[in-house]
Amino acid sequence: MGKRIIQQARGHGSMTYRVRKQAYRYRISYPSLEISGKAVVRELLNSPAHSAPLAKIEAGKESFFVPAANGLYEGQEIEINGKIGIGNILKLKNIPQGTKIFNTEAFPGSGGKFIRSAGCSGIVMRKENGRVEVILGRRKLSLNEECRAIIGVIAGDGRELKPIAKAGKKHHMMLARGKKWHRTSAVKMNIVDHPFGSGRGKRIKSKIAKRNAPPGAKVGHVKPRRTGVKK
User: Fold this and answer.
1) pLDDT of 57 over the 70 cut
2) 1-16+180-231 shares its CATH topology with 21-159
3) Other beta carbons within 10 Å of 10
4) Fold of domain 21-159
5) What is the pLDDT of residues 158-191, one digit of tens each?
6) CATH architecture of the domain covering 1-16+180-231
7) pTM for this model (two decimals)
8) In the chain, what are the domain boundaries?
9) Whole-angstrom Cα distance, residue 91 to residue 201?
10) Where are the strands (E) in the chain, listed by range?
């Protein structure tokens, strides 16, 4: 009898593939919409679940975590809804065109949802009809002008420059975030682990997945228009 293939086993949510809860103990967010004025960077810390270092910021009685801007330091004062400056939090309508930003909200009050990876940033472009266009490489986002963002570029840009010398180090890095690594090719598996498994029969035939197959069992051709060599 065959076993669940890896995609199905991961989706089942057993402890074998589940990430430790401690990795996601820091939740990225913004303070309430009414808060403005000065805030203080209390701590810069590492989170296994995020590629960038996080900054713990205190604004009055509220404290929250955001990705740290490049150049931010502990004890630094930042402004919320104030002037333009590295690490300051402003609404998109108050940010000049051409300014680099990150940790942008999806809608006012949602907390940072976009541009959160280390070394990333977006550029504020045209503003019209209550919407602001943000450029992300080749992509464009059209957001509400009341959405908040942080000025600058996210720290940790050089994290990929240092080589990972051992496979074991990569394994533990991915394990801390609940990621599957490394990926085993389907044709190298046993027949019980995957429909493409087993080395018997070197003439590999294409497989057409059933249209109503569950997620994870859709391997090979999914709803192809035709198969075979054209004659």
Assistant:
1) yes
2) no
3) 16
4) SH3 type barrels. (2.30.30)
5) 888 889 999 999 988 888 777 778 888 888 888 7
6) Irregular (4.10)
7) 0.74
8) 1-16+180-231, 21-159
9) 62
10) 37-45, 54-59, 62-67, 77-80, 89-91, 100-102, 104-105, 112-114, 122-128, 131-136, 139-144, 148-151
